[in-house]
Design goal:
CATH architecture of the largest domain: Alpha-beta prism
Strand order of the largest sheet: 21-22-1-23
Number of helices: 14
Bound molecules: ligand EPZ
CATH class of the largest domain: Alpha Beta
CATH superfamily of the largest domain: Enolpyruvate transferase domain
Shape: elongated
Helix content: 25-40%
CATH topology of the largest domain: UDP-n-acetylglucosamine1-carboxyvinyl-transferase, Chain
Strand content: 15-25%
Structural class: alpha+beta
Number of domains: 2
Distance between the termini: 5 Å
Length: 421
Amino acid sequence: MAKYIVEQSGPLRGEVVISGAKNAVLPLMAAALLAEDECVIKDVPMLRDVTFMKEILTSLGSEVVELEDNVLSITTKDVISTEAQFELVNKMRASILVMGPLLARKGVARIPHPGGCAIGARPIDLHLKGLEALGAVITYKEDYIEAATGGQGLIGDTIYLDFPSVGATENIMMAAVLAEGITYIENAAEEPEIVDLANFLNKMGAKIKGAGTDTIKIEGVDKLNGAQHTVIPDRIETGTFMLAAAITKGAVHIVNAVPDHVKPIIAKLRECGVRIEVGDDDLIVRADLGPQSSTDIKTLPYPGFPTDIQSPFMAYLTTVEGSSTVIETVFENRFMHVAQLNKMGAAIETAGNKAIIRGDARLRGCQVMATDLRAGAALVLAGLVAEGTTEISEIFHIERGYEKFIEKFTSLGAKIKRIDD
Ligand code: EPZ
């Protein structure tokens, strides 16, 4: 299995260009199922998760062509299957995002029971509740879950989400665009990726209003057409490089970013004493200007502090003066990185969804394991400042979500390399 070897690296300096957002491109690709003619998506990050989604769409009948670097063409003249295959769904939870489009276009969708993952059970009850409200009949078969409309099509309705689930909001929105009548999603997720999806669907001919707020109105239409769209920059990759600059006390210029999408991270790093200059589509993060101190974090649905930055931020908090607390409210088991950071010499105690991080840790390199995508990134950040060498295994987690990860970090002066066992 491949590993990362990270050496103590000193302050990172230079410029890094942010890629298109993984968590935007996956629903955008699923949405292409809704049109018979070509969709062209630009600034697609070339990631394992994108490859998985390509495979799923192809198995359903789409023609997916890489026109050039980071540009995908997706044409689904006809859907030849309405069942997402187990081995693909099992690799990537986001596969469930094909349910809404399949249901809207073909009146039936079958997906294997999605497994949980390292960060929690991650059920899909809110997805199914929304699709049922639109008229789908949900049947739990032995190997898969089926949503079917029995041929009469979906009917708009008002759906309240008990939790502002990102995936459920996306799935319901993609089902409702072809439903008869009007659908309201209340307590909807407000993430920028929801807005990006709504913008793409509206380019295809949908009538969606309110994306980015807690109430989204979708007026059903008869047909959607192909469209072109450019993926928004990845706010979680942006946050990861902001923290890379902070933890190494470096100075990094982050280009092709949307500062508005990372406001909580800017605010919290400024509380720690990091200087951040904000441009229209870039940020300059200066952590070479003086000592940094602790702060407290509580993850929340957008626009709150993003759960995906919780573990990289925790790695950073182990190195600043003073104690910090981190409360994780989105996932029930997202502290898997704590044991790995403590193995490196951090002093973090957890009780339920709360972690207390003692600062000023003298981190030491050792063998650690990535337990999920963002936990892996956190271990890389810790390895950049730990004495000696840090060997990170299970790095497939990291490579599913960060494009050109090694190239971008080494261009900033990070001593990191990938080895294949
Ligand atoms: C999306 O996952 C992201 N993934 C996650 O990023 C991100 O952490 C998450 O949103 C929260 O921001 C993609 O967009 C592909 P949720 P998603 O549905 O849609 C519970 C990364 O590292 N829930 O908002 O799966 C669920 O168990 C990944 O890039 C239900 O209870 O997140 C969780 O506790 C990790 N029932 C909470 O809601 C449901 O039907 C948030 O889940 C659905 C979700």
